[in-house]
Design a protein that fits this description.
395 residues, Rossmann fold, 2 domains, 5-stranded mixed β-sheet, 15% strand
Length: 395
């Protein structure tokens, strides 16, 4: 284990467990990390296992990819470790959603205070400030009781939180949200939600599936598999719901072939004093992606900004004239002990096979479990067959 003073697990804990502590990884043939490896750190011919964020051709990581190719390394991407049905096997579960929802509600409390509204969310802290997830949940229970008793500012009601997606990330975010008093409604019901009839002593929750995000351009019925296979035949329709929501939690997988959910053009045209939407928690965090005003993946110690749509710029913090954005791209790190334990239990069955693999053999003769072999992006600095398409992004 590389020595580190910042980890939630102290060096002494690793030593007690039997690990050998070292200031560097010079003597290691296989290196397991989490986030991107710094470019100067790559060593010739070694095997690296981490989240490289390159499979969509992410431009900001192409210099790192070039260095890996130059160093003739082997690269295994956690995100691509999947079963025969394409389901991920090594991941952080719902921890990004859990932390993302806490952070968004915390940020919302700051924003509402800035706008002159006293609100119960001001009691909440950022995820990283709690010793455990249960501690954060206990504060949310207090907030829930206060909302049920005193209600939210009536000017903000109906207080609607929309969740795009229904996978692990979304379920994590919903687990936190569901501590609050709420009523779940459908996207169709949202469009006709009556402000005068809505209660200020509960929040309204809406879950958006693919058929609520896009529709066939020619008007024919929505078929999910067709949407996956031929997204060019579809157009985005999510913007019809935006004026009805207070908060959007974005939890969907997205690539450029799919329609955007929130565009800068829409915000420039519609944002104003009467604009209901206050915040977006972009847990998916694709820069300029499904939420186009996601300008950057923010750091834990500087996690929020206000996107000023008229100026087409952003201002870090919770002040400014625009839409509050939370786009931390390493959210599980805010619940580090629980998230790490979950992740390591998923990873450990594969560690021995990776460590013992002879990466000098041709790709067809490499003996790795199928899920790991599917995740092998580079072999001695060259793309394996499934990932040769990435080379176009290096040009």
């Amino acid at each position: 284990m590389q020595k580190c003073k910042k980890r939630i697990f102290k060096d002494a804990e690793y030593k007690k467990a039997g690990a050998v502590l070292s200031p560097d990884m010079e003597d290691c043939d296989v290196i397991f990390g989490i986030k991107e490896v710094t470019i100067p750190s790559f060593e010739d011919g070694k095997t690296y296992v981490f989240f490289p964020h390159i499979i969509k051709g992410q431009s900001y990581n192409m210099p790192m990819l070039r260095k890996m190719i130059e160093k003739k390394v082997n690269l295994i991407d956690y995100e691509r470790i999947t079963d025969d049905k394409g389901r991920r096997l090594v991941f952080f579960g719902n921890y990004a959603g859990l932390a993302g929802m806490i952070d968004t509600l915390w940020a919302l409390g700051l924003r509402l205070e800035h706008l002159g509204y006293k609100n119960p969310f001001s009691k909440l802290k950022q995820s990283r400030m709690y010793d455990s997830l249960n501690e954060a949940k206990s504060v949310l229970k207090e907030i829930s009781a206060e909302i049920a008793k005193k209600g939210l500012p009536k000017e903000l009601c109906p207080f609607v939180v929309g969740f795009t997606g229904y996978g692990n990330v979304s379920r994590g975010a919903q687990e936190i949200f569901d501590i609050l008093p709420f009523e779940e409604i459908t996207p169709k019901q949202l469009l006709t939600l009556d402000k005068s009839a809505a209660s200020n002593k509960k929040l309204y929750k809406v879950i958006f599936r693919e058929e609520h995000l896009a529709e066939r351009i020619d008007g024919s019925p929505f078929i999910l598999q067709e949407y996956y296979d031929h997204p060019e035949k579809f157009k985005g329709v999510f913007e019809q719901y935006i004026p009805k929501m207070t908060v959007i939690m974005n939890c969907v997988f997205w690539t450029e072939k799919y329609p955007r959910l929130v565009t800068k053009k829409y915000l420039a045209k519609n944002y104003g004093k009467k604009f209901k939407l206050l915040a977006i928690g972009d847990i998916s965090c694709d820069v300029h992606g499904s939420v186009e005003c996601t300008e950057l993946g923010t750091h834990i110690d500087d996690p929020i900004y206000v996107y000023e749509s008229k100026k087409k710029t952003y201002k870090m913090g919770h002040e400014g004239d625009g839409l509050l954005m939370m786009s931390v791209d390493i959210l599980p790190s805010e619940l580090p002990r629980e998230a790490s334990e979950f992740f390591s239990k998923a990873l450990i069955p594969f560690v021995k096979d990776i460590a013992e693999c002879d990466f000098s053999k041709p790709f067809g003769k490499i003996t790795l479990p199928a899920p790991i072999k599917r995740a092998l992006i580079l072999l001695r600095g060259k793309f394996t067959p499934d990932y040769e398409y990435i080379e176009q992004f290096l040009k």
